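Sat 14:20. Reprocessing the chain from the morning session after the first attempt stalled halfway. Input below, unchanged.
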Amino acid sequence: MRGLVEAQKLRAERTGNGMTREVLAYDKNLMMVRMTFEQGAVGANHSHPHEQITYIISGEFEYTYGDEVLNMKPGDSVFVPSGLTHGIRCLSAGMVLDAFTPCREDFLK
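Finished this time. Tokens:
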């Protein structure tokens, strides 16, 4: 578990394909993650058992949500239920905030 997370102590992890991940505060039930995207970066379609909320901080994105494609811009958010296939393509460089429940243990390794 992490309590206070000081911005200057965060470690950014390059996840490939023009994306960077920073794990923010979390415990076993909830996790917040900041993702930074270069223009053209793609988070491939995938699904997982976690519930997720994505909030667009900056940039513009094409978000695959099941069979739909959502055009998302700053201030937009989306709830992703467990098991739903989703993915993201960055149209203009930006940043998103993701919340997961339960914690994404795979992001801590």
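The chain has one domain: 27-108.
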